[in-house]
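Encode chain A's predicted structure.
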Amino acid sequence: MVDSSGVTISTTTGPEWGPGKAWSLSEPPILEVGEAAGPSEVLLASVVGGSRRPDGSLVVCDRGSLTLRYFGPDGTPTRTVGGRGAGPGELRNMIDCFQRGTETWVYQAPVFPLEVFGEDGAHLGSVAAPRPGGRLAIVLGVHADRTLLLRQDGSRAGLPQGESALPTTLARGDDERGLDTLGTFPSARWVRGSLVSFPGAFTPTLQAVAAGSSTLIAWPERFDVLRIDAAGRRTRLRLPVEPLPVELRHRLAFEERVLEGPMPAGDLSYDAPPIRRDVVATMEYPARFPAHYRLLVAPDGSLWVERGDGPRDPLPQVAEPHAAPTTWDVVMPDGRWLGAVAMPALFEPLEIGIDYVLGVQRDAMGVERVRVHAIRKP
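Encoded structure for chain A:
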């Protein structure tokens, strides 16, 4: 650990786990909710969040029905709240769900307030999403003191021809206490052609999460995570994880995906063949894949990082779930790298506990179930 211009840099040279010491997830899971058919309270669609309570009960955020589903420790449905509407406790959208203790904060969209629900599903009120500089900002999380983590991307309208990085400003605060700007960072790469701007192939993008009283920020070109605590102290966690090279086969697969696969909706007709061809003709490719993708934080402050062990669909708005198993590195708050944990194929972790992982599992038909796997720690 060294100090550099007021920032503590913690560099780990290798994982601590030796033979027989690595953690693993239980198979089968210790709890599963959701069915392929049956009454509405057991059918899940587009799950965007979930949490396990100390007594083993669950809350699941179901975007398909705009509801919060509550289940007992044995998986029995106990309560459903929310639903589509504009009244108190009703929802008009559901982009994400954030947990703050036993509270569930439902993020609807930048133009709508966040709706807050208690442990038993009671509606506790609404929290307006701030608009820094009068512009909309995306909410990325909720800190322990109820301040929001906000992201505001620069405009793509003025991007030059070719490749460039979009600037992103991160801030923390709320309308009552004001906003504290954490910094402006280069975000996702964009490539501007003659007809349209498009996300760069295999582009890493800035990752930021609210973790208790701290904020974690990571730029995935390398394994380098910045932690900013409530007092503004900054620590960088670095691991010697080498990103994989982008090969010709990956570039050809990307071109086929853009020319033949589903495209996102938008003001322009991205499905139009001329636009698809323009994207392929002007695309620039990085030498390496991102070092990592998502970040999750456990209650003990340990950081779980999805390793960049292969390509992901370049268009997450329309992508199928990643079909291969994933690998997650576990890093302690002081920077010690414990090792890697394997996650099942088609499983998206949503919450890391001290002794469990909760996530959504999709089968070959796209049916969603929420599963809780115990973490086995030799």
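Helices lie at 248-260, 273-282.
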